[in-house]
């Protein structure tokens, strides 16, 4: 059994065949697909989608790339949506939140404002955070430390070994996906190979971050097992061992996964 801990299955790229994509993932052995929100406009969408799909679960949050359009009252709405979801077994945490210092033109202070506010929500409701850490590993971790959020996932991790161990020491797990299938992705492959197995969770970020065999094509959650095979080879273990380990890690990172129906 595998868990895709990060999949934007609500994206427009799946409008034509979303149910078929989800069915293919189930047939491939992906028992859970975590669908994170990115803005107020899709809070209801990811919830409804998670309930409609076998194995679907969701997180609620405001993505840093959506902060230019976000309003302060979106945070009030997010709090209400979180409170309304606490009894929902398919709700697993706060996400996707974080900071992005790669995309030009984003207001760093505005990103930080929304990130801090959402970390306070994670702290107040004792929920894990699914964090966007592109070119922002250190300030994202600084926020987690400041607000005492000690569970969750650093999505698409691509930092140094020192940063990786700092996240793990804080209680976070690190998400790896299609990037590790590219032979030129030397740092990501070294991290995926050498970090403790109990630090790692699997993800696709579908429809983005496609593996090498789908280069420039749409990514899908059924790719997790094949990505896992590449990672297992890098680590010198069997795919079944990797699947068991990363599934246990996902449940540790997102404890409410234990509540979601099989």
Automatic annotation (TrEMBL):
Annotated InterPro entries: DNase_TatD-rel_CS, Metal_Hydrolase, TatD-like
PROSITE patterns associated with the record: TATD_3
Keyword Phosphoprotein among record annotations: no
Xref: CDD domains: TatD_DNAse
Protein residues bound to a divalent metal cation 1: 6, 8, 96, 205
Binding site for a divalent metal cation 2: 132, 155
Entry keyword set: Hydrolase, Metal-binding
Cited SUPFAM superfamilies: Metallo-dependent hydrolases (SSF51556)
Pfam families assigned: TatD_DNase
Keyword Iron-sulfur: no
GO MF, one annotated term: hydrolase activity, acting on ester bonds
PANTHER family xrefs: D-AMINOACYL-TRNA DEACYLASE (PTHR46124)
Family, as annotated: Belongs to the metallo-dependent hydrolases superfamily. TatD-type hydrolase family.
Name under which the protein is recorded: TatD DNase family protein
């Amino acid at each position: 059994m595998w868990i895709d801990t990060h999949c934007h299955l609500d994206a427009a790229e799946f409008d034509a065949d979303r149910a078929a994509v989800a069915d293919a993932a189930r047939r491939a052995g992906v028992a859970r697909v975590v669908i994170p929100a990115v803005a107020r406009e899709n809070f209801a969408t990811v919830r409804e989608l998670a309930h409609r799909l076998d194995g679907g679960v969701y997180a609620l949050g405001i993505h840093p790339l959506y902060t230019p359009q976000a309003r302060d009252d979106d945070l009030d709405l997010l709090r209400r949506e979180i409170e309304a979801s606490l009894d929902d077994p398919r709700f697993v945490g706060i996400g996707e939140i974080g900071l992005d210092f790669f995309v030009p033109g984003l207001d760093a202070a505005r990103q930080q404002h929304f990130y801090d506010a959402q970390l306070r929500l994670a702290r107040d409701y004792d929920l894990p955070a699914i964090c966007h850490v592109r070119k922002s590993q250190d300030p994202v971790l600084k926020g987690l430390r400041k607000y005492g959020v000690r569970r969750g996932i650093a999505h698409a991790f691509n930092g140094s070994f020192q940063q990786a161990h700092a996240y793990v020491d804080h209680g976070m797990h690190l998400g790896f996906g299609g990037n590790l299938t590219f032979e030129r992705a030397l740092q990501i492959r070294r991290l995926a190979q050498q970090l403790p197995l109990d630090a790692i969770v699997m993800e696709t970020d579908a429809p983005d971050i496609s593996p090498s065999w789908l280069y420039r094509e749409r990514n899908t959650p059924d790719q997790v097992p094949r990505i896992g095979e590449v990672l297992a080879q890098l680590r010198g273990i069997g795919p079944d061992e990797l699947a068991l380990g990363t599934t246990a890690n996902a449940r540790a990172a997102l404890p409410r996964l234990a509540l979601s129906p099989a």
